[in-house]
Each structure stands twice: as structure tokens, then as C-alpha cells.
User: Fold these one by one.
Assistant:
Number 1:
Amino acid sequence: MKAGVIAVQGDVSEHADAVRRAAASHGVDAEVVEIRDAGVVPDCDVLLMPGGESTTISRLLHEEGIDEEIVAHVAADKPLLATCAGLIVASRDAKDDRVATLDVLDVSVDRNAFGRQADSFEAPLDVTGLDEPFPAVFIRAPVIDEVGGDVAVLASWDDDPVAVQQGSVIATSFHPELTPDSRIHDLAFFRQEHAESPAGTGADA
Ligand code: GLN
């Protein structure tokens, strides 16, 4: 399985480790590539779009021509896990002219609505599809304030959705890569029906 981590900016190596751990738990070798240029996304089975600074990430994706490749990846029903700033970039509307959203996920978001960096926190979160709560780390996290009809809410915090799914896209306000727990990566890449064949496992979905 070839996993591409969007690496124009943000926390890349943690996602690479998490996808390797999730793959290993299925006996699958993940080849992880860091994506900074156009031309790599089309070869990837799954994609990760990390946290960081959404204004910077969206600008660089556009400058490098990677933005359209991500849209095509999702249009081909291939898995994408977008976290925090990645969620903002994936959304339909970030209510901020500096973020050119990709509109691959029918949600609107409020950037930094969970507060400033100092207000970062960790909370045990009930997530649809996981047996035990997930230790969710929130860092200047976006709030999802509107969810389209095709979007399933997988987890909420204080009545706000913080993990959502639309087709092959799973997105979280929090940072699932910052704990040793790789169950969100597992959910995104190995437990969706359509993820079966791209992930190359043929395993139980
Ligand atoms: N606040 C950041 C943004 O708006 C996202 C924070 C993060 O990814 N941890 O881009």
C-alpha cells in the first residue's frame, strides 16, 4: 500500500508513523511518501493531509498544483484522512479568504474556534466504529459548524462534530497522529468498504 502524506507544511512524520502502525496491524507494509510536488498523488492508494497552518497549506498546494490531484484522488473514491488544518483545507468553506478550500468534504468550519494554542486539550472521545474512547488531542482546533446531508458525524465534543466521514474521506478536528493509538488511521484506511481494495488487504471491512 502506498500512503502519501501531504508534506508542504505541518506534522508529517507522526502521520507517517501512525499509518505504518495501522498497516502493520493488518500485516500490510505501508510505503510512505512525503508529498511536496505534483505528480506523486496519482500513485498513492491513500492520502493524509496533516495539521499545521491551513492558510499556508492551501497556498502551497495551489502553487504546486497538488490541490487538483487531491480532488481527483477523492473523486476516484480513494481514502483521505484530513486532520485539523487538513480538515479546514478539505472543507467546503473555511470562512477565510486566505484558505482556498478543496471542497472534498461538505462541511463548513470555524478556524481556531476551540481557542488559542494555550487552550489545547486532550479528551477521551467516543467515536463511531471504535469500541473504546479515543484519546483526542485538540490544538487550536477548528469547529465544524455545518454538515451536509451526505456527511456522517462520527464523534462530537460539546455538541460540535469533531470527526466526520463523507464517502472515502474521514476528517477530524483533533490530532489522531499525536498519540500511539492508530485506530483513526485504521478506520480511515482499513475499515471502510471502499478502502478494502486500495489498501490491498482484502481484509474484513
Ligand atoms: N489553527 C490552525 C489553522 O487554522 C489549525 C491548527 C492545527 O492544525 N493544529 O490552520
Number 2:
Amino acid sequence: MSVLDAFRLDGRTAVVTGGNRGLGRAFATALGEAGATVAILARDTAQSELVLADLAERGISAHAFRADVSRRAEVDAVVEEIVEALGGVDVLVNNAGTCVHRPALEVTDAEWQEVIDTNVTGVWNCCQAFGRHMAERGRGTIVNIGSMSGLVVNRPQWQPAYNASKAAVHQLTKSLAAEWAPLGIRVNALAPGYVKTEMAPVDEPQYRQNWIEDAPMQRYSTPEEIAPSLLYLASDASSFATGTVLVTDGGYTVF
Ligand code: NDP
């Protein structure tokens, strides 16, 4: 057996929340290329159909399901749908997230609530609902997408709710890892730095200095460059890792 076999996911099923675009789409593709049957969970079903067509062209077996992760009833219902359709869930990637870029004194109640509802309650809803299913089976792997913003404060585009939410994701990850290890469930977090997606306007000149030029590697990343790190945490390659926060940020958090 080759060491590379530990990264394979043949015969396994993987759910990616927010799999419609950005990092989630790259994660779904990587998991599928590693052999998993993939379920993308998103709100925009028309966009999901386009992603499914692309995954099918790559020879990946994929399904799409609709849910807003911040709404518990929708999450509970979709877990049942997914388990029935796929026969069980081996890997859950809690990727769906949102960000509000605004100084603290200008953040509205609604903006604060949206970020916390999506990034913290959404991750919690999916962890608990899929976690119950995994506990019944006695196995499962969860990867929560945190951020370097859960570790340091990035300038100058202030985002207090986002930073707080990602620190909460890291701590929730550790808490569940400790509680669920005896149940056969591993829980880890991936904390990327700047990745070019709709969420991060990395090319805008006002952010270049602090976001890119001050960072050791002096560049941002692509979703595809982060995907192998996700694959490590989702597969048996990380079989002795739980409760870890894997930082992939081009060195941004060393300062
Ligand atoms: P995008 O904005 O490109 O994608 C976010 C995805 O999450 C979309 O597919 C969106 O779907 C989905 N989503 C948002 N809210 C919900 C919800 N309530 N229910 C279901 N799906 C939802 O962002 P990224 O790809 O950049 O981010 C993905 C993850 O990576 C996030 O958790 C983000 O915080 C994290 N991250 C991103 C970094 C970056 O620099 N880009 C750096 C570090 C972490 P919809 O079409 O329905 O809106």
C-alpha cells in the first residue's frame, strides 16, 4: 500500500456546505477526485445544477441539496434527505460562511446577527445534526473552515463579527474533537489566509499593502491551492489528528 492511498476516499461520501462557488466548489472537486461521492449543500439551486454538470464532466459522482445552514429545521431535514440518498455520510466540510467588512462602530445588529448565524450557528447546526448520524455509525470526519482571522486581526478592512465568528469556529472544533473522539468522530479546522473568491476582494489596491505586501509570501492563494490541505484533514492521511487548526496562510500569522 502506497502512502498516497491514505488520501483516497473511494467508497466514501462527503458533504460540502456552500459548495456552489469559491473554496467550497474547489473542496467538492478535490474530494470527488479523491474518489468520494459528493453532496453539495447550498441555497442557490440553479447554481448547484451548473456545479453538478461540471463535476459530472470530471467523472465525479455528485448530488445537490438545498438548505440555509443557519436554519436548524432546514438542516435537520436535509440531513435526512442526504443520508437516505447517499446511504450515510463519512465526511462533513462546514465551509458555508459570510463576512461583513465594516468598522465596529458602524456594524448594524442585522449584520452582526447574519455573520454569527451563518458562521457560528450554521457550523454548530451541521456539526450536531450530522454528528448525531456519525455517532450512530461510530465513525465520521468533520472539517470546519475557520480562518487566519480567527487567530489574528487583519487590517485595514475591519471585520469584528467575522473575526469573532472564526475564533468561535476554532474553539467549537476543539470542544467537539475532545467530546467525540470516543465516538469515532474526528473534528479539525482549516484556517486559510487570503484566497481569491467573491468574499475576499484581494485585488483591490487599498488592501494590497496590508493583505499582500506585508505578508511573508507576498501573494494571495487560490481555492485550488487550499484544497489539498482540506483533503489531508478529510482523509485517513490525518487519522491521528483531531482538534487541530491547520493554518494555510502564506505566513501571514507569523507576525
Ligand atoms: P464565497 O462567498 O465565495 O462562498 C461562500 C459560500 O457559502 C457560497 O457558496 C454561499 O452560497 C454559501 N453560504 C453562505 N451563507 C450560507 C447559508 N446561510 N447557508 C448555506 N450556504 C451559505 O466565500 P469563500 O469561498 O471565500 O469562503 C468559503 C469559506 O472559507 C467561508 O467559511 C470563509 O469564511 C472561509 N475563508 C475564506 C477566506 C478567503 O480569503 N476567501 C479566508 C479564510 C477563510 P450562496 O450562493 O447561497 O450565498
